[in-house]
Specification:
By secondary structure, this protein is mainly alpha-helical. It has helices at residues 2-8, 13-21, 25-28, 31-41, 49-61, 76-81, 83-109, 123-128, 132-135, 139-163, 186-189, 193-200, 210-221, 240-249, 251-254, 261-267, 279-294, 303-318, 328-344, 353-371, 389-414, 424-438, 446-477, 479-492, 508-521, 553-557, 600-617; strands at residues 224-229, 232-237, 530-531, 536-538, 541-543, 548-551, 618-621, 634-636, 638-640, 647-650. The chain has a 4-stranded mixed beta sheet. A two-stranded antiparallel ribbon has the order 4-5. Helix 23 (446-477) crosses helix 25 and helix 23 packs parallel to helix 27 (600-617). The longest helix is centred in the C-terminal third of the chain and has 32 residues, at 446-477. The structure holds protoporphyrin IX containing FE. Protoporphyrin IX containing FE (HEM) is lined by residues 272-273, 285, 455-456, 459-460, 463-464, 467, 523-524, 527-528, 589-591, 595-599, 602-603. Residues 1-119 are annotated as: Disordered. It is a multi-pass membrane protein.
């Protein structure tokens, strides 16, 4: 309505220009510009207002100084023969150009052209009549327009989700969700809630583990709350009831794993830990679990391997005499060797450089995946292939680990004794053969075996190593409790006999101490992220399909409604009045439900036998001049203690 009314009332553009400027510049205008003006004049009357605006801009754009070729250029011969006249001609041409541009601008603003619609008219109409500068998609304007549109869409999407009854949570930013502050310059970032929280605790933001921040947010929004990472909805479960309802009572819906691009690129979504919930995961996990059990997981037959490994630990520790040392490499080597014995049927000497290199590469890969620009691969997958920095480093690490593991698998295939399989790899290779004969669609193959071994290392090394290190640290900080543990060992096992799993039942205080360390430190504090495979309702909230779910095991273990004085180190909370061990269902360091830790029995065996052997042989203390280490831990999928040194005295 507006468009047609405005166009029919249009006076001739020529007239318009003269009327507004009141000058005779039209006569002084060079021929080419006159042509442009003529084209404006010749414009058919039935054109829409927006098209008129564009045409006007196009015609004037030709006279815009600086962009198109100059309207008039004096012949070069003039420059040589009469330099003064040449200069005058040039400056006249420049003046005319400027005037022409001016005239164009005035013509644009002339009252005869279609005017922008009134304030209250609908926005699509106003957009139609917007000045061409706004509509033109030059690189900056276009990008800004697209970005604003994306922001608007993202924001409305997020809010539509909030409105649909999803759990409460902090207000997300458009597009980036709740972690937009990482994109801010440092001086603004300091005002974010994360930095304010870190300042209140007297720490650097990086020192605050995500489990602490999420526990803080649960205090504000409740035990089931949500936030957004980009447009991904993440729901955090912070108390035992919601964790049990999701992972046990609605296990079929809450047992998938999210598709994280970096993880998918590295694991090819194979193996067990990050595999999708479904028949392939079920077959592979069932086979792996029963094979590990066959080789002694949770049984006495594995005991000698763990005890043998402890002999090397003892030797290595004694080498330091009474000097402080970092216990990490010794404990890490020992724990990895137990997995090696199960998977490869062999242990590696602590001085074996290839083995050491592999262990370093595995921790380095985890570290760079969580703390470097590699995280950007989750936004833009192709960055993974960049030929520099952490991108290149990760690909190289992958290549080295692949070569190491594939060689071991190849050696096993060549020396496989069908009648007498020696380890996990042998059993798997036999199963591959069997499946090949009976099931053409089988998921069992050598490629899959490679990823499962990687999983057993990643899931089984850092977790147990860190649990043992935390035990040593808590014993050093609580000498009275260390003494009580040693008294119990003395009473039940004595000084010389090697510990056995059969002693466990008679050592409730020692077991309660290990459990209390696990309760306070929770080495896998946020479990491994889960994902819903369909829409559901949890604790009255709607949880859409594809929601990432983080069970905050750390919060569950510090819940004051369950644990009295939850921040205190108090092993007796796991003992009844007669000093017998109480099993508490709210103690869940290995997670619960279908995705519960596959190595729980192995980890419990290792922890008990290693801890008891260490306490039997040594007393641990921190060096006198050392500062008390922070007990918040360093987060990197697992929660490790900050590096510390220790002194041993032989018992
Ligand atoms: C103290 C030591 C350990 C702790 C605290 C621990 C804890 C956990 C936790 C919390 C999960 C995630 C559960 C979930 O997603 O809800 C997990 C998964 C897993 N753990 Fe452990 N773990 C330990 C040792 C081990 C060991 C020694 C192995 C190897 C044999 C192992 C193998 C696995 C595997 C394969 C999974 C993935 C299970 C799946 O996705 O189906 N863990 N562990």
């Amino acid at each position: 309505m507006f468009v047609s009314g405005a166009t029919t009332a249009l006076p001739n553009p020529e007239e318009r220009r003269n009327r507004t400027s009141g000058s005779n510049f039209q006569t002084a205008r060079p021929a080419c510009q006159r042509t442009a003006a003529a084209s404006v004049r010749a414009r058919p009357r039935f054109r829409s207002g927006a098209a008129d605006w564009r045409r006007g801009e196009h015609a004037v754009g030709a006279a815009n100084p600086g962009r198109p070729p100059p309207l008039f250029s004096p012949p070069p011969s003039l420059r040589r023969s009469e330099p003064r006249r040449w200069q005058l001609a040039v400056s006249r041409a420049r003046r005319e150009e400027a005037e022409a541009a001016d005239a164009g601008a005035q013509a644009m603003a002339s009252p005869g052209l279609p005017q922008p619609p009134a304030e209250g008219s609908p926005w699509p109409l106003r957009l139609l009549h917007a000045p061409p500068e706004l509509l033109r998609l030059d690189p900056t304007g276009g990008a800004l327009l697209l970005l604003s549109l994306a922001a608007l869409l993202g924001w409305s999407w997020l809010w539509r989700h909030r409105a649909r009854g999803i759990p409460p949570g902090p207000t997300p930013w458009p597009v980036v969700g709740n972690f937009g502050f990482v994109l801010l310059p440092p001086f603004l970032r300091r005002k974010s809630w994360l930095h304010r929280r870190a300042r209140a605790a007297g720490m650097e933001p990086s020192a605050l583990g995500p489990q602490l921040l999420l526990a803080d947010l649960a205090r504000v929004y409740g035990n089931v709350f949500s936030f957004f990472i980009g447009h991904y909805l993440v729901v955090v479960l912070s108390d035992f009831h919601s964790v049990r309802e999701a992972l046990v009572q609605q296990a079929e819906i809450f047992s998938d794993r999210p598709r994280v691009p970096l993880v998918s690129l590295v694991t090819k979504e194979k193996g067990i830990v990050f595999a999708h919930y479904g028949p392939v995961w079920r077959q592979q996990r069932k086979f792996s679990h029963s094979t590990l059990r066959h080789f002694g997981l949770g049984k006495l037959s594995l005991e000698p391997k763990i005890i043998e490994e402890f002999k090397y630990v003892k030797e290595e520790m004694q080498k330091h005499g009474e000097n402080p040392f970092d216990p990490f490499p010794i404990v890490n080597n020992a724990v990895s060797n137990i997995i090696c014995s199960l998977c490869f049927g062999q242990r590696f000497d602590y001085t074996n450089s290839e083995f050491k290199k592999m262990l370093n590469l595995m921790s380095r890969a985890l570290e760079i995946c969580l703390n470097t620009q590699l995280l950007l691969v989750n936004i833009c997958s192709w960055l993974y292939y960049l030929p520099f920095g952490p991108f290149k480093e990760l690909r190289q690490i992958e290549k080295d680990i692949t070569t190491f593991l594939k060689k071991i698998i190849k050696d096993h295939r060549e020396s496989l004794d069908v009648e007498n399989p020696q380890d996990f790899i042998d059993m798997y290779l036999l199963h591959v053969e069997e499946e090949r004969k009976n099931n053409s669609n089988s998921s069992f193959n050598e490629d899959y075996l490679f990823y499962i071994i990687g999983d057993l290392f990643i899931a089984g090394t850092d977790t147990t190593t860190n649990s043992l290190l935390w035990c040593l640290l808590y014993m050093s900080l609580n000498p009275d409790i260390q003494e009580k543990v040693q008294e119990e060992i003395e009473r039940v096992i004595g000084a010389d006999r090697v510990p056995s799993l059969t002693d466990k039942a008679r050592m409730p205080y020692t077991e309660a101490t290990i459990m209390e360390v696990q309760r306070l430190t929770v080495v896998v504090p946020l479990a491994i992220p889960h994902m819903t495979s369909e829409k559901t309702v949890l604790q009255g909230y709607t949880i859409p399909k594809g929601t990432v779910v983080l069970p905050n095991l750390w919060s569950v273990h510090r819940d004051p409604a369950i644990w009295e004085k939850p921040d205190d180190f108090y092993p007796n909370r796991f003992l009844d009045d007669q000093g017998q061990l109480i099993k508490k269902e709210t103690f869940i360091p290995f997670g619960i439900g279908k995705r519960v830790c596959m190595g729980e029995q192995l980890a419990k065996m290792e922890l008990f036998l290693m801890f008891v052997s260490l306490m039997q042989s040594f007393t641990f203390a921190l060096p006198e001049d050392s500062k008390k280490p922070l007990l918040t831990g360093r987060y990197g999928l697992t929660l490790a203690p900050h590096p510390f040194s220790i002194i041993i005295s032989k018992r």
